[in-house]
Specification:
The chain is of the alpha+beta class.
Length: 135
């Protein structure tokens, strides 16, 4: 049994179609969503996300957002999302390096929370790229 999934970011519609499973990390923990799931609204954390369409599984890196689950459809409103095989590993490593350097500066100009969030996002992208794609 499938359900309708719509994934959008501020810039584009990323995915729309029927899927068997959505696996996402929310503020309540790891969640596997199937058809006829109990309705809910939750925050999505910077994490791995994957969808199953039949025997095909697609892996993504997301920087967070919101998931809205209804009986027959799920809406993911995400800040960013990248399919694992489309992540630019060198760009992710450069982002990590820049964020780590900003964090080491310890000046008033450096927003420590933003730098730590950038590190988390870069590490997530690197992990998912290395875990799910041939490099």
């Amino acid at each position: 049994m499938t359900f309708h999934l719509l994934i959008i970011t501020p810039n584009q519609k990323v995915f729309e179609g029927n899927v068997d499973l959505l696996n996402v990390m929310t503020s309540a923990g790891q969640m596997g969503i199937l058809a006829k799931h109990t309705p809910l609204l939750s925050v999505v954390k910077t994490s791995e996300l994957h969808i199953q369409e039949g025997k095909k599984t697609t892996y993504f890196a997301t920087s967070g957002g919101v998931v809205s689950v209804q009986r027959e459809k799920v809406l993911l409103l995400l800040d960013t999302i990248e399919r694992a095989d489309q992540i630019d590993l060198n760009r992710a490593k450069e982002s990590l390096k820049r964020a780590e350097e900003r964090l080491k500066e310890k000046t008033e100009k450096v927003d420590e929370m933003r730098a730590k969030a950038a590190i988390t996002r870069a590490l997530n992208r690197i992990l998912i790229k290395e875990k799910y794609t041939e490099i």
